[in-house]
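Attaching the record inline, Q. Sequence:
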Amino acid sequence: HVQLVESGGGSVQAGGSLRLSCAASGFTVSTKRMGWFRQAPGNEREGVASISTGGLMTYYADSVKGRFTISKDDAKNTVYLQMNSLKPEDTAMYYCAARDAYTGSFLAPSTYNYWGQGTQVTVS
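Structure, as predicted:
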């Protein structure tokens, strides 16, 4: 049974930092592409960052490049999203996701088939 559990969200002032964690169970993060997504009220869910199975290749939305870093620890079976220089527009529910597919846009939510419950990030 695949399960993803996010943590680390909270409220922070603009310019601050947060680190989100995504603990996986039922599979190993080294076998699936992992991603972080976010959804603000009234907006569609959007891809933020993605990391390859080997962890060597990362991809970011233009809006977060240079500020966010995705990483993973295979030994802990956990994926992270380090968020620096946070802006009010980063406020959203953040979701961790995994996918079986080898093709398709790395940041397209429709290509991911396993999702966590989300963690709220609020930047003021």
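The two ends are 37 Å apart (CA to CA). The chain is about 0% helix and 50% strand.

More tomorrow.
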